[in-house]
Specification:
The chain has 224 residues and is of the alpha+beta class. It has 6 helices and 13 strands. It has one domain. It has helices at 11-16, 65-71, 114-123, 141-148, 165-172, 216-219, and strands spanning 22-24, 50-52, 55-57, 76-82, 89-99, 102-110, 126-129, 135-138, 152-159, 177-181, 185-190, 195-200, 206-210.
């Protein structure tokens, strides 16, 4: 992750989340379960919005963190992070989820203004200083409840099984762009789907999802 594989700002959580994270227990919901499809089954319900794993990004009714917890029964870890020289981020993390025959890690970026995040930081019950220089804030009960009702901004899936170029092209189709990064990374960009598939020659592949209307968040850090 230190090689700038993640363009959406979730790198901090992948580094920090295992250091005494705050756990949100699975909820018992009266609503029907969410049916999530495979990583390449991306729906476009409205202009500028997308749906993957049964969760909607963007549009008038984006999914919330509570929806994500309902979609996956695994334990969810939540963190308010202050990376060095970067804005605050509120992110959630599943160590392992099952999606059909696939398994992997799932990182969720939560949409919130910096003013909202600053207020949460002021009310935080505890602060941890990690070896990476990142500060992690333990939210109070009221702010954990607020976070559950906030919309999702990004989804990052890191499959346990390795992907290769042939599998990416077969499952996701021909990308609009292919951009190499460094010595071992290549980005397969699908702006109409809000997707960046990062092929790593020496590590794990990463699938980054945003609403198609927000695709510039993935494309801009890659330059060119």
């Amino acid at each position: 992750m230190s090689r700038l594989k993640i363009a959406t700002g979730v790198t901090a959580l992948l580094i920090a989340v295992l250091a005494a994270p705050l756990l949100l227990p699975p909820k018992q919901e009266a609503s029907p379960p969410i049916t999530h499809g495979m990583p390449w089954q991306i729906e476009l319900p409205t202009t500028g919005a997308s749906r993957v794993f049964g969760l909607t990004l963007g549009g008038a009714r984006p999914s919330t963190l509570a929806d994500a917890q309902r979609a996956f029964p695994e334990v969810l870890k939540l963190a308010l992070l202050a990376p060095q020289d970067q804005p605050l981020t509120l992110e959630a993390y599943f160590e392992s989820v099952s999606i059909g025959p696939l398994s992997g890690k799932l990182v969720i970026g939560i949409a919130a203004s910096q003013a909202e995040l600053e207020a949460m930081r002021e009310r935080a019950a505890k602060t941890d200083h990690l070896e990476t220089g990142i500060r992690k804030f333990i939210l109070g009960d009221a702010d954990r409840q607020r976070a559950e009702n906030m919309p999702l901004a990004t989804l990052v899936f890191i499959p346990a099984a390795s992907l290769d170029e042939a599998v990416i092209l077969q499952r996701f189709g021909t990308p609009a762009e292919r951009i190499p990064q460094g010595e071992t990374l290549e980005h397969f960009l699908y702006p109409e789907k809000g997707l960046d598939v990062v092929l790593d020659g020496k590590g794990k592949e990463v699938l980054q999802y945003v609403a198609p209307a927000d695709f510039a968040r993935l494309r801009a850090p890659l330059g060119k």
